[in-house]
Design brief:
Layout lengths: L18 E4 L2 H13 L1 H13 L10 E3 L6 E4 L2 E4 L1 E4 L5 E7 L4 E8 L10
Parallel strand pairs: 1-7
Antiparallel strand pairs: 2-5, 3-4, 5-6, 6-7
Helix pairs in contact: 1-2
């Protein structure tokens, strides 16, 4: 069965960890493609979202998006938007919802997202 909007990206989160869910079916499909291309890096990204979705120290591979992409709305709540560079072009964008302790994956794909070229 293929994952879709609102589905969890993995098993339920244990105590102290965040849920990771797909914001839409396109992000779920992109996640599957990314996992096939770079399984270990995708797993590391999933762990980062579960354990430290808003890290104190940003890195070139895990950082908050800038400009108009720095925030987004999910289910009526404005959230920061972060990016994980999984491969040279592959990215995951997510919005940590601090109230629900859920990371909503808004983009996942093997190619560099064009929106960052104008964001």
């Amino acid at each position: 069965m293929t994952a879709g909007r609102g589905d969890r990206a993995a098993p339920p989160a244990p105590e102290g960890h965040w849920e990771v869910r797909f914001a839409d079916a396109a992000s779920a499909k992109g996640w599957e493609s990314l996992a096939q291309q770079a399984r270990e890096n995708t797993d590391r990204a999933w762990i980062a979202m579960r354990t430290a979705p808003r890290p104190v120290t940003e890195t070139p591979r895990l950082h908050r998006l800038k400009g108009s992409l720095a925030h987004g709305t999910h289910r009526g709540r404005t959230c920061e938007q972060w990016q994980i560079e999984v491969t040279g072009g592959g990215r995951i964008w997510y919005r940590p919802d601090t109230v629900r302790e859920t990371c909503w994956i808004t983009f996942a794909g093997t190619g560099h997202p064009r929106a960052t070229d104008r964001g």
